[in-house]
Amino acid sequence: MRVGVLGAGQLGQMLAVAGRRLGIELRFLAPDPLSPAGMRAELIVAEYENEAALAHFVDGLDFATYEFESIPASALRSVAERIVVRPSVRALEIAQDRANEKECFERLGIPTPRSVVADSLREARAGLEMVGLPAMLKTRRLGYDGKGQSVIRQNSDLERGWVTVAGAPSLVEAFIPFTRELSIIAVRSADGEVAFYPLVENHHSEGILRFSLAPAPGVAPSVQSRAEDFAKRLLDDLEYVGVLAIEFFETPDGLLANEMAPRVHNTGHWTIEGADTSQFENHLRAVTGMHLGSTEVHGVCGMVNVIGQEPDVGRLREIPDVHVHMYGKTPAPRRKLGHITVVAADLEGVRNAVAKVRAVLARK
Ligand code: AMP
Question: Ligand 1 mean position to 97 CA, how many Å?
């Protein structure tokens, strides 16, 4: 069995590892010759829209998928003309544009922060009046890890914010004073079977995910089932096949969907050690038409992202119950270079081990 993947970052690298266990060979296409997935599988180095390269890419494949949201939809469409692509091009197109995503959430009755589309500074001003202060200004497309967004605390922040988003088509969105951020990793098979991992608690700083705790502590069963219900509505409506992640804000009034990702997700990395079947394996199972694996979780997991600087891996490995994943990327500020998962019997065990991991990362 051969699966082609557009995009070849660390998500692809972890898909390749999961694929090997399932006897599935992966082939990647991405423009950067140093792409992390290229260390674990065949990598075709080409721009996504290079038609000759795409033809070479699909040759001999059984299925195709993607691990990067910003691939041009036209490239995916071109692949989909020749071979089954899962998740669908439509799922990608919705997730690529925050306005489409919001419209999809609203259509399916999934609560989401109020927002107004703004294609000009004048429209942003009008949007701000409707949404009220404080607010977030976010580009509709190509925003990730906090890029392309700006907090608007007072009216006079808007002009600076408009420069931050470089005048690109944007959304003015209500600022949500959330209690915490949660996400759900869901998966749907080609037969319509669905499975969910427990909600994960996520901590960001400067717009980048730093730490996840799974299962999120103190989640009422009604909140978990509500998140699953929202995910199921999306999965069924999009006739989705593969892993889908949804990020939520938890508020005293319930969950608000912030965004979705039509791919395996950073807040699901803990599933490699923490669940019966990892998100990567379940994605490949779904894409290749297999039954899903169990999403049962054992113990509690903490996942710490390694960002910007190479850590002392030797010292990290000395900490009990710690699993180090380095992606082989060149260090750069704000770049995700790896992640560390801690698995323990209880929350206290996770907190203790995570404190030790953080001390090593902080070079103390
Ligand atoms: P996003 O790119 O939409 O995931 O935003 C990155 C991070 O910015 C989120 O994880 C939140 O921490 C924060 N953020 C985004 N939108 C809002 C909002 N409407 N209200 C408050 N914080 C937000």
Answer: 15
- In this prediction, residues 199-215 reach a mean pLDDT of 96
Q: Which residue has the higher pLDDT, 326 or 147?
A: 326
Burial class (CB in 10 A: 0-12, 13-18, 19+), 339: buried
Pairing label, strands 2-6, 25-30:
parallel
Q: What structural domains and CATH numbers belong to the chain?
A: 2-85 (3.40.50.20), 114-174 (3.30.1490.20), 180-362 (3.30.470.20)
Q: What is the pTM of this model?
A: 0.97
Residue 147 alpha carbon, nearest atom of ligand 1? 2
- Confidence class for position 145, pLDDT limits 50, 70, 90: low
- Nearest residue (CA) to ligand 1, atom 11: 207
Distance (angstroms) between ligand 1 centre and the Cα of 151 equals 9
Average pLDDT over the chain reads 96
| 177-188 burial code (b ≥16 CB/10 A, e <16) | ebeebbbbbbbb
| Percent of the chain clearing pLDDT 90 (strictly above) | 95
Cα–Cα distance for residue pair 212/201, rounded to 1 Å: 5
Nearest Cα residue to 92 out of 63, 72, 106 = 72
Q: Which of 70, 128, 136 is the best mutation target for the ligand 1 pocket, counting ligand atoms within 8 Å of the beta carbon and taking the most?
A: 136
Work out the angle between the directed axes of helices 121-131 and 157-164 (0-180°, nearest 10): 120
Ligand 1, atom 7, residue with closest C-alpha: 207
Atom of ligand 1 nearest to the CA of 176: 20
> What CA–CA distance (Å, rounded) separates 356 from 364?
10
Cα 90 to averaged position of ligand 1 atoms, centre (Å): 24
Query: Which of these, 85, 112, 91, 64, lies nearest to 236 by C-alpha position?
Result: 91
Element (H, E) at 137: strand 135-139
